[in-house]
Amino acid sequence: MTRIKRGTNKKRSHKKILNLAKGHRGSRSKLFRQANESVLHALMYNYIHNKTKKRNFRRLWNVRINAAAREHGISYSVFMSGLKKSGIEIDRKTLSDMAINEPVGFEQLVEKAKSSIN
Q: Is the CATH code 1.10.1900.20 the one for domain 9-117?
């Protein structure tokens, strides 16, 4: 049976980890073991914080929509319920953007939501 050498594969996998560890401090970007541990933690934190970021943005959009809806005399929950009943499907990010940049369009949505509730 012939002998199989694994040098090239090992070097490729190490290089991949070391490239991911660029920007880490000290031996965490130079030595494979430290870099591997650092990259594993970084990827774990990245996954967790991406979820947190989505959650935080959704909260921000809800606050903005609520503030804009209350200016027109309607609460957030009633407004969202009215939109759903009237068959308007706009995501919260777009609604938040409309509340800030297009108040006239947002006011029309509020009127439609009010009319579908009554």
A: yes
Domain ranges of the chain: 9-117
Angle at 100 between CA 98 and CA 103, to 5 degrees: 65
Is residue 29 within 8 Å of 23, Cβ to Cβ? yes
Separation of first and last alpha carbons in the chain: 83
Q: How many residues does the chain have?
A: 118
What gap in Å lies between CA 38 and CA 35, rounded to an integer? 5
Tokens 């929950």 belong to residue: 77
Per residue in 46-93, pLDDT tens? 999 999 999 999 999 999 999 999 999 999 999 999 999 999 999 999
- The model carries a pTM of 0.76
| Of the candidates 83, 85, 86, 87, the residue with the CA atom closest to the CA atom of residue 99 | 83
